[in-house]
Amino acid sequence: MKINPRTLLAFAHDVTASAVAWIAAFWLRFNLDTPGFYFWIALSSLLWVVPVHAGLFWLFGLYRGIWRYASLPDLQRILVAVGLAAVVVPALLFMIRAGVPRSVFILNPILLAALMCGSRLAFRAWKERRIAVLTRSQREPVFVLGTGNAAVNLMKELSASAQWRVVGVFDDDAAKVGRQLHGVNILGRFADLAQRAAREHVEQAIIAMPEATPAARRRAVDICRRARLKVLTVPSFDDLMSGKVTVSQVRHIELDDLLGRDPVTLDASGLTDWLSGKVVMITGAGGSIGSELCRQVARFEPRLLVMLELNEYALYAIEQEFAARYPVLRTVCAIGDVKDVVRVEEILRRHRPSVVFHAAAYKHVPLMENENAWQAVRNNVVGTLSVARAAAAQGVEKFVFISTDKAVNPTNVMGASKRLAEMVCQSLQQRSGTRFVMVRFGNVLGSTGSVIPKFREQITAGGPVTVTHPDITRYFMSIPEAVQLVLQAGLMGSGGEIFVLDMGEPVRIADLARDLIKLSGFSEDDIRIVYTGLRPGEKLYEEPLAADENALPTPHPKLKIARAREENSNWLDRVVVWLDRQDGVADDEVRRGLSEWVPEYRPQ
Q1: For 269-292, what is each residue's pLDDT tens digit?
Q2: What is the rounded distance in angstroms from the CA atom of residue 376 to the CA atom of residue 406?
Q3: What does the alpha-carbon distance between residue 151 and residue 250 come to, in Å, rounded to a whole number?
Q4: Are strands 498-501 and 559-563 parallel, antiparallel or unpaired?
Q5: What is the rounded CA–CA span in Å between residue 41 and residue 98?
Q6: 3-class SS of residue 478
Q7: Global pTM value
């Protein structure tokens, strides 16, 4: 086997170190003046000492590591090898009666460990300093905001970076100003950023505060903007905790960072009892919400995950993702339309899921309003009825229906169809043992068809960014948070409830557009905002509850229960008759029918 010359060099160094440490131990034992007799003992015993050390060094794999990256595990291996030698060498020399003073056996391992560990650390420090000097002019100077654990880890990883050079740290804790973090000075508080940026010729800053509140992150971003610094951030706290990314994977600030909310507290043990070892089915599994439901359900290790999706490519994408990320999890990727009663019944009969999450829906408001009104009702109501009936027939324990805040006092076909689907589920609850749970929430950041991707495309194209009305507001939450709360609501629901997620404060869409323009490195002088007027079916604001609905608290702070109007069991039969007669009817006729079945629906 061919041995790397550097390995031989490192081995020779350690063998030499063992000889030097042995002679030095005698030297120290006799106060730096070794008598000739004991000096001869020291030299003759090297014939035993050096081979023992050499064999143990090789045996313990001290030469698998690279000196430039010497770390704690390398030092631990050295200490173990030297420690074992400190037992073997005295035993051997006592057996041959070498006459070595006992204090030498104590001094030798101490000196040897210091020589071996010290040389490695010194080489690493010299190498890193040399590389830093060579690349210093090529690396971009950057400020770091924050002094928590994330900032500490970031500084450690950036010290070996070929791209960044941290020249200063900032923190609003005045007690920390003037101190150092990983050898870099804490230059001041956030308010001092602009002054220091001009002095140090820094153009970029990394916000390393993943655990901070959204308000604190927004303030840090605003200060960086005023200092004319390009803003980067470390990954989110959830991503860091999950192990998906490391702190050094800095990225541009996203809207999620500024609109972020407090972390969701989940009943992990309850969800494990509910989902672990069960068969779980998710409709619309390739969509924004459906695919995230698949990911989060997978964490609880179901026995089988059935993913139903009409779009072939979307199903292929989630199938490929799961093959890579969850190779052990059993999955079924079923192509099918929720309106296809035969296909839906076949899937449920074959796999007999315990839990069904129904996320398949048409949700684009203007698109569903004109030319597609009946298709919206057919998909959102008939499709829900198809899956819900099949679930009840197959004895599914719990059916979780994903609804929307647009179902509250709807002014559009999409919202009215989702409200009618809620009422269908509530009516089915009266007829079966399956527990039907409905969950309402508003817009999710980055979902298919949401306003954020559209704004990004318009900014990339040079603008303008189109907003329908200066005062239009919407509720926003991230996709992972929405899905976490759907799971929690599904666990808590006992049947017939409509859970309403706490969406926080409404956000003006115009402000959202301005934030996104600034985060993209532009100003409103570069990218204009143009108001185009409300689209068909669109209203200025969304309502989490209707006027005749009472919100009841739940044990979870982000979930409430809307006590909505329920219909009697005969109502569903009449709705089904109406649905069977709607094929081919005009949009106006569909809207008139919806107004009869959903009294709170007021078409624009």
Answers
A1: 889 999 999 999 999 999 989 999
A2: 14
A3: 11
A4: antiparallel
A5: 7
A6: strand
A7: 0.66
